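can u do me a favor
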């Protein structure tokens, strides 16, 4: 028979093992829920802003009733799709609970019977009887986290070529203030995978915190290399904002942090960045300095499109008829990313579609690599494609293309 103390020791060890299994899941679930909630708020705000923009265009008689109704319906449909997508994303994240449950069952279901079958309980009792309980059950949360880090280090040692495991360990080192280990891990990642902003930015952060929030030429060189590879790298921009905040250069801190929000990169703690900006604004107000002007992002995607009508459709259109030209995502929701309204009399004509024509801040050309291009001569003068309209289509256009696309209206919609 195994003693009570031995059972307590086994229970303590299993508790630590279960903590290691469940801690990443619980942490990630919380982060996923927070991220989905932030995106949901952003979607709602975007919808309200776009609806107000449509209403203003309607009030200014830039849109007729039918156009206003169609675009308003499309906005509402996109909001519903986005909300459903976020809900589905959260559900997918929650289904990963199967893994920790299975791992827990296997840990308990296999280790204990295996020990009872092949273990040597008498020797273990003799060696550990007075200390078994105190060695594990009295561990603090910090000590338990150390166990988790040690477990991750073991995993990396067992699979040293797994850059994903090393990347996770490097970030864990930063979170527990083990900056030397973090710096070494990021350097090794660069050796394994080459220079990437995802490695250089966090490495610069670790060096900055190790140096007690003081810049050095070495850190600045890392920042320059990171931004050269990716001007929107979140870790690097956050670091620059932090350094300017620490040195009381609040306008620059606000500018860098706002750039992080404008990039709309995933994995960014939007709430924390917004709180940091608000704190910087408050301190700037006390100094009496003017708030920085946040420049609107320059359109990073544009398409030149030559719109023309096929000779085969002669006699089937009038000079004063409305022509709608717009781009929609090649995949996903059909919400227009950019749109222009012309008349038949203006054709043929070359136009430019870019981010400034977006109906919502969340649906821009720059957010898609490929789009479909439509040109529609509307018989009713309203948006949408209906039987009897004349249509042209480019199935796939690359938003980064420097060459113009020819969009020929050559089909009668049936």
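np, heres the sequence
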């Amino acid at each position: 028979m195994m003693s009570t103390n031995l059972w307590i020791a086994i229970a303590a060890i299993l508790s630590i093992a279960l903590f290691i299994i469940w801690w990443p899941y619980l942490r990630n679930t919380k982060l996923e829920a927070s991220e989905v909630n932030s995106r949901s708020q952003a979607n709602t705000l975007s919808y309200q802003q776009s609806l107000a923009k449509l209403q203003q265009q309607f009030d200014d008689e830039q849109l007729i009733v039918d156009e206003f109704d169609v675009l308003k319906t499309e906005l509402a449909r996109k909001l519903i799709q986005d909300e459903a997508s976020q809900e589905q994303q959260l559900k997918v994240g929650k289904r990963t609970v199967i893994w920790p449950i299975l791992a827990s069952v296997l840990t308990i279901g296999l280790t204990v019977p295996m020990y009872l079958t092949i273990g040597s309980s008498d020797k273990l009792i003799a060696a550990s009887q007075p200390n078994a309980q105190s060695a594990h059950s009295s561990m603090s949360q910090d000590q338990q986290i150390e166990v988790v880090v040690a477990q991750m280090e073991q995993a990396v040692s067992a699979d040293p070529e797994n850059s994903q495991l090393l990347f996770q360990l490097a970030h864990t080192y930063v979170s527990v203030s083990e900056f030397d280990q973090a710096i070494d891990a990021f350097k090794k990642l660069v050796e394994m995978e080459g220079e990437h902003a995802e490695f250089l930015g966090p490495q610069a952060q670790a060096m900055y915190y190790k140096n007690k929030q003081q810049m050095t030429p070495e850190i600045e060189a890392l920042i320059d290399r990171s931004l050269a590879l990716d001007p929107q790298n979140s870790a690097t921009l956050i670091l620059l904002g932090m350094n300017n905040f620490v040195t009381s250069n609040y306008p620059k801190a606000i500018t860098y942090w706002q750039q992080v929000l404008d990039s709309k990169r995933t994995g960014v703690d939007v709430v924390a960045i917004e709180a940091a900006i608000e704190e910087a604004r408050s301190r700037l107000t006390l100094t009496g300095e003017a708030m920085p002007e946040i420049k609107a992002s320059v359109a990073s995607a544009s398409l030149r499109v030559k719109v023309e009508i096929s000779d085969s459709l002669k006699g089937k259109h009038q000079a004063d008829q409305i022509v709608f030209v717009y781009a929609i995502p090649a995949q996903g929701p059909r919400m227009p990313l950019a749109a222009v309204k012309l008349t038949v009399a203006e054709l043929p004509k070359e136009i430019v579609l870019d981010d400034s024509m977006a109906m919502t801040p969340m649906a821009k050309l720059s957010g898609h690599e490929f789009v479909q291009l439509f040109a529609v001569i509307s018989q009713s003068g309203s948006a949408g494609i209906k039987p009897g309209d004349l249509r042209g289509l480019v199935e796939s256009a690359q938003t980064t293309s420097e060459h113009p696309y020819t969009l020929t209206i050559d089909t009668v919609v049936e």
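Residues 163 and 192 are 7 Å apart (CA to CA). hope that helps!!
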